[in-house]
Design goal:
Length: 273
């Protein structure tokens, strides 16, 4: 009798355990289903432009733009994968559908119609020159005209037009130091090898934060001839639904404060913003 009772209890226990496992699986099913339902879009980015996009010490794409894009994706229930790629090949890669979009400091005033639609702008930036007020050679520089004959650094990332702009401000191309990155331009300034750095306000604002950590003071000088430039995401023409999601998501993160939190994370209280 006891053996029969033990066998019955064992069978019941097994059945109950099975029911519990089944219930657990059913409880987890909606979450798994929701994750499976989230589309994944692949974005190209040339991750050499801190703080907008760059590779961290583990080789992962990080920066201001990736954070904005991921926040937009979360609001609109999709996922993004970012891959480091050559920026000049953005059109080719979109036309071949190697990527669904691009996030790499694209400005709204350019023509992308050959391969993409531009999202609504999410940040704007202006051209400025950053100098050092405590430097004996630059302490009296307060306006753009005072930079004539001075040495200006500019990153080659901006292209020839920016290099020519630096030359027009400094008086000649001989007074322009072209560097391989914004970091190197800023380093030349902090090492007193140049009198100013020409660049985008938010980028230089990021480096101002780094300088402030070392108690180095900087000052910004406006470039009056240069208009504001708005930064956008690019979306391949084969994904009109993605463009709608990104535009809605930008509005949402601007309204709920998530965008401002990302901006503060990367640019802090910089005076160059």
């Amino acid at each position: 009798m006891l053996n029969k009772l033990s066998l019955t209890l064992a069978v019941c226990a097994a059945l109950l355990a099975g029911c519990g496992q089944s219930a657990d699986k059913n409880a987890n099913a909606p979450a798994a289903s929701q994750a499976a339902d989230r589309p994944v879009y692949n974005f190209g980015t040339e991750a050499v432009y801190p703080p907008f996009q760059f590779l961290d010490e583990k080789g992962r794409v990080t920066g201001f733009e990736p954070d904005v894009l991921r926040a937009v994706a979360k609001e609109e229930n999709f996922d993004v994968e970012l891959k480091h790629y050559i920026r000049n090949k953005w059109a080719e890669s979109l036309n071949k559908q190697e990527f669904d979009g691009w996030s790499s400091a694209f400005y709204s005033n350019a023509d992308y119609s050959q391969a993409a639609h531009a999202s609504k702008p999410f940040i704007d930036t202006v051209r400025i020159i950053v100098s050092m007020p405590d430097n004996e050679q630059t302490k009296n520089i307060t306006e753009i005209g005072h930079l004539k004959g001075k040495k200006i650094a500019v990153s080659k990332y901006y292209g020839q037009k920016m290099i020519d702009l630096a030359a027009s401000i400094a008086g000649s191309h001989e007074n322009v130091m072209v560097t391989d990155s914004f970091y190197l331009s800023a380093r030349e300034l902090f090492n007193n090898q140049v009198n100013g750095v020409l660049g985008a306000s938010y980028v230089l604002g990021y480096y101002e934060q780094q300088a402030n950590k070392n108690h180095i003071k900087t000052k910004a000088i406006d470039v009056p001839s240069e208009p504001k430039r708005e930064v956008v995401f690019l979306v391949g023409k084969h994904h009109p639904e993605l463009l709608e999601k990104i535009n809605r998501g930008i509005d949402k993160i601007k309204a709920n404060g998530k965008y401002q939190a990302i901006e503060n994370k990367w640019f802090g209280q910089s005076t160059h913003r």
